[in-house]
Amino acid sequence: MNIDLVSIGDIHPGILQQLKDGLEVVFGCPVRIGESIEIPGDAFDRARDQYLSDTLLDRLRQYEHKSKHVLGVTEADIFTHGLNFVFGQADSVNRVALISLNQLRDEHTLEGGDKLLLERSLKEAVHELGHTLGLGHCEDVKCVMHFSNSLVDTDVKGLYFCSRCRPKLIE
Ligand SMILES: [Zn+2]
Ligand SMILES: [Zn+2]
Fold first, then answer.
1. Cβ-based neighbour number of residue 13 at 10 Å
2. In a domain, 146, yes or no
3. Which of 136, 100, 145, 141 is nearest to 121 (CA)?
4. Which has the higher per-residue pLDDT, 107 or 166?
5. Ligand 2 mean position to 6 CA, how many Å?
6. Ligand 1 centroid, distance to 127 Cα (angstroms)
7. Which ligand ends up closest to the CA of 124?
8. Is 167 part of any domain?
9. For residue 92, which ligand has an atom nearest its CA?
10. Phi/psi at 3 (nearest 5 deg)?
11. Which residues surround ligand 2, an ion (CB under 5 A)?
12. Which of 14, 28, 107, 161 is deepest in the core (most CB within 10 A)?
Protein backbone atom coordinates (compact mmCIF):
# COMPACT_ATOMS: atom_id res chain seq x y z
CA MET A 1 0.00 0.00 0.00
CA ASN A 2 0.96 3.65 -0.16
CA ILE A 3 -0.51 6.83 1.23
CA ASP A 4 -0.85 10.43 0.10
CA LEU A 5 -0.88 12.87 3.02
CA VAL A 6 -2.73 16.05 2.11
CA SER A 7 -3.13 19.17 4.22
CA ILE A 8 -6.54 20.81 3.98
CA GLY A 9 -5.84 24.43 4.84
CA ASP A 10 -2.66 25.36 6.72
CA ILE A 11 -0.95 22.67 8.80
CA HIS A 12 2.35 23.17 10.58
CA PRO A 13 4.95 21.51 8.29
CA GLY A 14 6.65 19.88 11.29
CA ILE A 15 3.44 18.09 12.27
CA LEU A 16 2.88 16.87 8.72
CA GLN A 17 6.41 15.56 8.45
CA GLN A 18 6.16 13.75 11.79
CA LEU A 19 2.81 12.25 10.80
CA LYS A 20 4.42 10.99 7.61
CA ASP A 21 7.30 9.43 9.55
CA GLY A 22 4.92 7.83 12.06
CA LEU A 23 2.61 6.38 9.41
CA GLU A 24 5.57 4.92 7.54
CA VAL A 25 6.59 3.08 10.71
CA VAL A 26 3.08 1.77 11.54
CA PHE A 27 2.12 0.67 8.02
CA GLY A 28 5.61 -0.01 6.72
CA CYS A 29 4.75 1.66 3.43
CA PRO A 30 5.76 4.83 1.60
CA VAL A 31 3.90 7.99 2.56
CA ARG A 32 4.03 10.98 0.23
CA ILE A 33 3.18 14.53 1.21
CA GLY A 34 0.92 15.71 -1.60
CA GLU A 35 -0.12 19.13 -2.80
CA SER A 36 -2.20 20.87 -0.14
CA ILE A 37 -5.77 21.99 -0.79
CA GLU A 38 -7.97 24.79 0.58
CA ILE A 39 -10.68 24.18 3.16
CA PRO A 40 -13.84 24.13 1.01
CA GLY A 41 -15.82 27.26 1.86
CA ASP A 42 -19.16 25.52 1.41
CA ALA A 43 -18.30 23.15 4.27
CA PHE A 44 -18.65 25.99 6.76
CA ASP A 45 -21.77 25.95 8.94
CA ARG A 46 -22.28 29.50 10.17
CA ALA A 47 -24.73 28.58 12.93
CA ARG A 48 -22.36 26.02 14.44
CA ASP A 49 -19.11 27.81 13.56
CA GLN A 50 -17.80 24.44 12.39
CA TYR A 51 -17.10 22.62 9.14
CA LEU A 52 -19.07 19.65 7.82
CA SER A 53 -16.58 16.79 7.51
CA ASP A 54 -18.60 15.12 4.74
CA THR A 55 -17.90 18.08 2.46
CA LEU A 56 -14.17 17.89 3.20
CA LEU A 57 -14.24 14.17 2.45
CA ASP A 58 -16.04 14.92 -0.80
CA ARG A 59 -13.34 17.37 -1.78
CA LEU A 60 -10.69 14.72 -1.03
CA ARG A 61 -12.47 12.23 -3.29
CA GLN A 62 -11.86 14.65 -6.17
CA TYR A 63 -8.20 15.02 -5.23
CA GLU A 64 -5.82 13.74 -7.88
CA HIS A 65 -3.89 11.34 -5.75
CA LYS A 66 -0.84 9.34 -6.68
CA SER A 67 -1.24 6.76 -3.93
CA LYS A 68 -3.88 4.15 -3.21
CA HIS A 69 -4.94 5.73 0.08
CA VAL A 70 -5.46 9.41 0.85
CA LEU A 71 -5.40 10.98 4.30
CA GLY A 72 -6.37 14.63 4.66
CA VAL A 73 -5.21 16.60 7.71
CA THR A 74 -6.97 19.77 8.76
CA GLU A 75 -7.06 22.28 11.59
CA ALA A 76 -10.74 22.97 10.87
CA ASP A 77 -13.20 22.11 13.64
CA ILE A 78 -15.27 19.40 11.95
CA PHE A 79 -18.61 17.77 12.70
CA THR A 80 -20.94 15.36 11.00
CA HIS A 81 -24.71 15.02 11.32
CA GLY A 82 -25.60 13.51 14.69
CA LEU A 83 -22.22 14.23 16.32
CA ASN A 84 -21.05 17.47 17.96
CA PHE A 85 -17.58 16.98 16.55
CA VAL A 86 -15.47 14.23 15.06
CA PHE A 87 -11.75 13.51 15.24
CA GLY A 88 -11.92 12.16 11.71
CA GLN A 89 -13.96 10.42 9.06
CA ALA A 90 -13.33 7.79 6.41
CA ASP A 91 -14.75 6.57 3.12
CA SER A 92 -13.69 2.94 2.91
CA VAL A 93 -14.99 2.47 -0.65
CA ASN A 94 -12.83 5.23 -2.13
CA ARG A 95 -10.01 4.76 0.44
CA VAL A 96 -10.14 8.41 1.43
CA ALA A 97 -10.02 9.63 5.02
CA LEU A 98 -9.33 12.72 7.05
CA ILE A 99 -8.45 13.79 10.56
CA SER A 100 -8.74 17.14 12.31
CA LEU A 101 -6.20 18.36 14.84
CA ASN A 102 -8.67 20.87 16.25
CA GLN A 103 -10.33 18.76 18.95
CA LEU A 104 -7.12 16.91 19.80
CA ARG A 105 -5.81 19.91 21.71
CA ASP A 106 -6.62 20.52 25.36
CA GLU A 107 -4.88 21.83 28.48
CA HIS A 108 -2.55 18.81 28.40
CA THR A 109 -1.28 19.52 24.90
CA LEU A 110 -0.80 23.15 25.88
CA GLU A 111 1.45 22.00 28.72
CA GLY A 112 3.04 19.06 26.99
CA GLY A 113 3.56 20.71 23.64
CA ASP A 114 3.43 18.97 20.29
CA LYS A 115 4.45 15.51 21.47
CA LEU A 116 1.02 14.61 22.87
CA LEU A 117 -0.76 16.29 19.96
CA LEU A 118 1.33 14.26 17.54
CA GLU A 119 0.66 11.03 19.44
CA ARG A 120 -3.10 11.66 19.36
CA SER A 121 -3.14 12.69 15.71
CA LEU A 122 -1.11 9.65 14.72
CA LYS A 123 -3.57 7.33 16.52
CA GLU A 124 -6.54 8.96 14.83
CA ALA A 125 -4.73 8.87 11.47
CA VAL A 126 -4.02 5.13 11.83
CA HIS A 127 -7.64 4.62 12.93
CA GLU A 128 -9.13 6.36 9.88
CA LEU A 129 -6.71 4.62 7.52
CA GLY A 130 -7.74 1.35 9.21
CA HIS A 131 -11.27 2.04 7.96
CA THR A 132 -9.92 2.53 4.42
CA LEU A 133 -8.30 -0.90 4.85
CA GLY A 134 -11.67 -2.49 5.55
CA LEU A 135 -11.74 -2.47 9.36
CA GLY A 136 -14.70 -1.55 11.53
CA HIS A 137 -14.62 -0.50 15.17
CA CYS A 138 -13.07 -2.78 17.78
CA GLU A 139 -14.21 -3.37 21.36
CA ASP A 140 -10.64 -3.66 22.65
CA VAL A 141 -9.99 -0.29 24.32
CA LYS A 142 -6.26 -0.64 23.62
CA CYS A 143 -6.74 -1.29 19.90
CA VAL A 144 -6.28 1.65 17.56
CA MET A 145 -9.65 0.75 15.94
CA HIS A 146 -11.51 1.47 19.18
CA PHE A 147 -13.92 4.36 18.64
CA SER A 148 -12.92 7.60 20.37
CA ASN A 149 -15.81 9.45 21.90
CA SER A 150 -13.44 11.71 23.79
CA LEU A 151 -9.74 12.41 24.22
CA VAL A 152 -9.63 9.94 27.12
CA ASP A 153 -10.46 7.15 24.66
CA THR A 154 -7.75 8.39 22.32
CA ASP A 155 -5.19 8.53 25.11
CA VAL A 156 -6.09 5.04 26.37
CA LYS A 157 -5.88 3.31 23.03
CA GLY A 158 -2.61 2.30 21.44
CA LEU A 159 -1.14 3.10 18.06
CA TYR A 160 -1.41 -0.43 16.69
CA PHE A 161 -4.04 -2.93 15.52
CA CYS A 162 -4.92 -5.69 17.97
CA SER A 163 -4.37 -9.36 17.11
CA ARG A 164 -7.99 -9.70 15.97
CA CYS A 165 -7.94 -6.62 13.71
CA ARG A 166 -4.53 -7.05 12.14
CA PRO A 167 -5.35 -10.21 10.11
CA LYS A 168 -8.49 -8.49 8.76
CA LEU A 169 -6.61 -5.65 7.07
CA ILE A 170 -7.33 -5.74 3.35
CA GLU A 171 -5.10 -3.66 1.16
ZN1 LIG B 1 -13.82 4.99 13.35
ZN1 LIG C 1 -8.89 -4.41 17.32
1. 10
2. no
3. 100
4. 166
5. 26
6. 6
7. 1
8. no
9. 1
10. -130, 135
11. 138, 140, 143, 145, 162, 165
12. 161
pLDDT digits (tens, 9 = 90+) for 11-63: 998 999 999 999 999 999 999 999 999 999 999 999 999 999 999 999 999 99
Question: From the CA of 131, how far away is ligand 1's center (Å)?
Answer: 7
Residue 23 lies in a domain: yes
Give the domain CATH number at 50: 3.40.390.10
- CA dist 41 and 55 (Å) reads 9
pTM over 0.90: yes
Span 61-101, pLDDT tens digits: 999 888 899 999 999 999 999 999 999 999 999 999 999 99
128 is catalytic: yes
The Cα 97–Cα 65 span in angstroms is: 13
In the reported structure, the alpha carbon of residue 147 is separated from the centroid of ligand 1 by a whole-number distance in angstroms of 5
Task: Please give the distance, rounded to the nearest whole angstrom, from the Cα atom of residue 35 to the centre of ligand 1.
Answer: 25
Angstrom CA distances, 25 to 50, 126, 139, 150, 163, stand at: 32, 11, 24, 25, 18
